[in-house]
Hints:
This protein is mostly helical. The protein has one domain (70-350). Helices cover 76% and strands 0% of the residues. The chain is built from 16 helices and no strands.
Amino acid sequence: MIERVDAALEEQPKPENGEEGAIGDISLERRFFKPQTLISFLVAFAIIYFLLTKINIDFGQTFQRVKGANPLFYLLALLVFYVSFLVRGWRWQVLLRNVGFRQRHGVRLPALGGLVEIVLLSWFANCIMPAKLGDAYRGYLLKKSAGVSFSKTMGTVVAERMVDTVMLFVLMALAGLRVFHGTVPDAFASMLIAGAVLVFVILFAFVVMIRFSAAVKFLVPQRFKPMYHRFHEGTFLSFQNMPLIVVLSGAVWLSEAGRLWFVLAAMGVPNVGLSVVLFVALAGSLLTTLPFTPAGLGVVESALIGLFILLGSLGIVQGVDEVMAASIAVLDRLISYWSLVFIGFLVYVISRKR
């Protein structure tokens, strides 16, 4: 097994013309103005409008509560969010090295700061385009920066998503069971089902790629076979150094909870346990994986408000009514979505990698 991995790392097949034609020139400007993108934003704003008309939220009170947030705690929430990109960049660097993107193999990757910049730009792309197209943009940017195989790079991104989704589901389920004391309310049940389906699809695809690799490759059109080979190789070679990858992934998800904890502290919500914060933060993150709207816009806000109203009504979180739930959702998404649109756009404008 070790010999096969070493041989794969030494081969490092060069990108072929088929790969160049397949990815083309990924232009955010052109893709942003495509009908699919505009429709996804319409869907997002329709969801938000539906939510606002169905829940009795006083906008004046919500605005006043948002204005009254503690600025120090809120800045800490913002800091935690952006520091997490350092961890994400480090984890991706580990995955890229796992697949053989090293200097001794003729590949000069960007430094950690450059990889963090690419990850940030891919998140920005996910905020303005549906269907997680930012992930493909990440592969495109690394290919452009380092001249590596787009297909093999996408294998590392897919492997990262696999690890993230499985860990997210397990942590969310454990935290949710602790929050609700072993019971399963309808809202929690829906998220468990959605998460379980995602994990099943991922594991099923993983098994198919392992057990039926030859059959899958046979079904792939001839011109795409080299690309599939590199993608397959990139995916499975990524699963080395798993203890470090798991630790870094855990740090990523804890940072999601940390951001929300500081938002709650900024709003003066008292005595919120780690399991509650972790459950809500991960439930929101799970919904960002849905490809219908950019970065879950509209869907995540609805879920955050609904979950906090539920937790407040059950007495699990003290002092949270409809207005407070809406205020928390607004402040959290100002960081995790709207600040990313603003800062991501600035980075995009000045970046040489785009």
